[in-house]
């Protein structure tokens, strides 16, 4: 029987449980044994009880759950070759040569590195007399498939990452709550949202809640001038009769010289306008709660396709990342997706913001 391991890695996101459930059940359907690797890459490195077979019943009711019930971690040991050696040893001794990783770009980069090093890792384990010749032969190729689990929606080559729409929903709920009190007191609110270097959550939340202004990393305003522009916009909205002011600030927001635009700096501008202003940093509530229907659907369809991809892969197939483009579940070369994602950060660092926007691979930022 083919043995597949599934893990969640990096920051958790809503829908990861649905993805694990789909992998486990699709795996069983296709007559494979599916192992959960608990605590992200730590489970592979430490092995033992952290690498356990899951049955059909074990994932019952997981479709809607937030977080990840198999745990996650940002594992430092796996970044070292010694950690990857232990991981390879634990996989081979458990008879596993396929790994489905649900995580962000860092986790998927680690997975691809693991695959490229695999033959040399096995060779070293053989030299250390930890593995026998027949094991090296039998498990000589490693199959890696990536599922993108992240609230940030920052991965290239896919329109949506698992968790992004749930997080967006959470943010919108919170801004709706804030709207009520803001309007009652005729106050201004600065709402800081997550997303790391990606403005998707901020932009979409601003559009969906009708914010006065939005600050995101990919469309930075001119240094200093943004303060006057913000005042002009908010004043105009007030003059039209709006009783509240809401500004959404992505945690990675910057100006055109790459200076951070912090929620405090935005608050200062609103205070200068004479507005009674409060700041709300939403924090980890954005990663909490159940998965919205879209994420349940996305995680389930992608989890099933990840298992199919494992079964269809040949040693020459580049590691795929399962994405969604124009409503179709697609397989993209994982390395390319990770490289493109990293090149957005490079474009921003080089102040080439138009390039950053086009590299986001979506049309909504135009
Ligand atoms: O990548 C997901 C994310 O929630 C980012 O939006 C945020 O910057 C970061 O993780 C927070 O990380 P941590 O949970 O380790 O504080």
Automatic annotation (TrEMBL):
Belongs to the phosphofructokinase type A (PFKA) family. ATP-dependent PFK group I subfamily. Eukaryotic two domain clade "E" sub-subfamily. Belongs to the phosphofructokinase type A (PFKA) family. ATP-dependent PFK group I subfamily. Eukaryotic two domain clade 'E' sub-subfamily. Catalyzes the phosphorylation of D-fructose 6-phosphate to fructose 1,6-bisphosphate by ATP, the first committing step of glycolysis. The lineage of its organism: Eukaryota, Fungi, Dikarya, Ascomycota, Saccharomycotina. Substrate binds at residues 150-152, 187, 194-196, 251, 278, 284-287. It comes from the Eukaryota. Residues 3-310 form the Phosphofructokinase domain. ATP binds at residues 11, 74-75, 104-107. Homotetramer. The active site is at 152 (proton acceptor). Residues 1-366 are annotated as: N-terminal catalytic PFK domain 1. It is found in: Cytoplasm. Mg(2+) binds at residue 105. This is ATP-dependent 6-phosphofructokinase.
